[in-house]
Write a structure and sequence with these properties.
The complex is a heterodimer of chains A (257) and B (268). Helix content of chain A is 40%, strand content 27%. Chain A has helices at residues 46-54, 91-95, 97-101, 107-119, 135-148, 165-181, 193-199, 221-224, 228-233, 235-256; strands spanning 2-15, 18-31, 35-39, 61-66, 69-70, 76-79, 153-157, 185-190, 202-207, 212-218. A 6-stranded mixed β-sheet of chain A has the order 6-7-8-3-9-10, sandwiched between helices. Chain A has a 4-stranded antiparallel β-sheet with strand order 2-1-4-5, covered by helices on one side. Chain A starts with a strand and ends with a helix. Chain B contains 12 helices and no strands. In chain B, helix 3 (58-70) crosses helix 12 and helix 8 runs antiparallel to helix 9. Chain B starts with a helix and ends with a helix. Classes of the chains: A alpha/beta (257), B mainly alpha (268). Chain A binds chain B through residues 54, 56, 73-74, 76-78, 80, 82, 84, 86-88, 97-98, 100-102, 129-132, 149, and chain B through 167, 169-170, 172-179, 183, 187-188, 191-192, 194, 267-268. Chain A: This is Spermidine/putrescine ABC transporter ATP-binding protein. Chain A: GO terms for molecular function: ATP binding; ATP hydrolysis activity. Chain A: Keywords: ATP-binding, Nucleotide-binding, Transport. Chain A: InterPro entries: AAA+_ATPase (IPR003593), ABC_transporter-like_ATP-bd (IPR003439), ABC_transporter-like_CS (IPR017871), ABC_transporter_ATP-bind (IPR050166), P-loop_NTPase (IPR027417).
Amino acid sequence: MTFLSLNHITHQYFSKQGFTKAIEDVSLSIEEGQFVSFLGPSGCGKTTLLSIIAGLLTPTEGTVTIQQQPRSQTNIGYMLQQDYLFPWKTIQENVLLGPHIQGNITEMKKEKAIQILEEIGLESVVKSYPSQLSGGMRQRAALARTLMTDPKLLLLDEPFSALDYQTKLKLENLVSQMLKQYRKTSLLVTHDIGEAIAMSDTVYVLKARPGRIAKTFQVPGHLRTLTPFETRQHADFNDLFQTIWKELDQLETESIN
Amino acid sequence: MKQSPSTDETRFQQHLKKLQKEKRSIMIWQLIIFASFFSLWEMSSRLRWIDPLLFSSPTKISDLLLAKATDGSIFMHIRVTLLETVAGFLLGTVLGILLAATLWWFPKLSKIIDPYLVILNAMPKVALGPIIIVALGPGYFSIIAMGAIISVIITTIVVYSAFQGVDRNYVKVLRSFGANRFQIFKEAILPASFPTIISTFKVNVGLSWVGVIVGEFLVSQKGLGYLIIYGFQVFDFTLVLASLMIIAIFAAIMYQLVERLERKLIRG
């Protein structure tokens, strides 16, 4: 069943000098429980697209529907490039931010927060402040915060890009496992080809100025069952990597000419 | 090899000792400056290197303060000025923050009144003194108003720009949870601006003293500002300098209190 569908989304930004088309005529649909990636150069409107899906921006044209309904803002989780944990709140308070805003902190929610923090390996720092944690730990806490409100759809805006390579690989595995376990539909924006292949079921390659879908790649079924780290080691990973690489390279040459 | 833990420990002890020594040396120098300033002042006044009528001397000042403390009159003046300064400081700061919050809430309003804020900020607020005194009457209210008005506009401008400088992504996180505008303000904008707000406290402590002292100059009834202007009129500069000493001490105390508040409010 189609979970999320975008119908002919176009978005323009206006400034005093004129306007830029960030996205032009993007249509796609995502099945429930799927993991989808948007891959593209900077300026291809990736973040704009996520903001539109999250309901933070209203597109100039086109509609977004979730389960055939116009999207409602509250059941979407958003993970950003940096963790954006609130430095004046403890990890526990940060993780409970969603319920706090929605005004329904209960004992059950508190237990759930502890449980998620345990699963993610942060049970020892519940009462610490974000500044006392490493980058990887902070991004894990941000994942816990996102999962707390039990969103049906997860939007990941380059969440691993600010981390060092080793932490990034470890976190890819953790996020992938958590999202499978909680059966989330997820949308990842990235400029890392390997990450897109390792984590997703479908990869959309976008081209820049204006952003539109250039090509769609399906990740072969036997790679999807592996963890991201194992996928990166697999022989078929390289073939797909080469194909996507060529596609992106070609797009870049086209846009220069 | 066997000795290494003990040498590590001794090195650490040496490091601690070094820190302590430096701290003590700074303290000693501060005391030396303090003592030499006052003894030089006393000496040059007695030897008439400077005019004792104009610059008085530490002993004359302390004699005067002692006399005024025995008859209790100085405490009344201190109480009046202190009360006015604290009230002016609180009023100016709170009003400034409230105004900044209003501007944040209504972005269009902030664009409309921007040029007026710039003009108000550039204007010397103490020049409004005569009008305030006539409008509010020559008493506590107009002096407190002077203490407040001098800091309110600059507080508004500084705090508002801090509100605007808060990373948009914190707002994005809150909005993805469905937060309303008030929640965004309370959870992200205000706490993220605490460091700036505290630093305006520090500036406003000084500003409120200026406003209140000038207010007391103009009203000329009681308070340390009145003592200064009275001393000036009767050419008693011992009184002027004694009042200045007291102001310096209490201004420093207020500043210290704000600094302590800062350490309490800002963590991490």
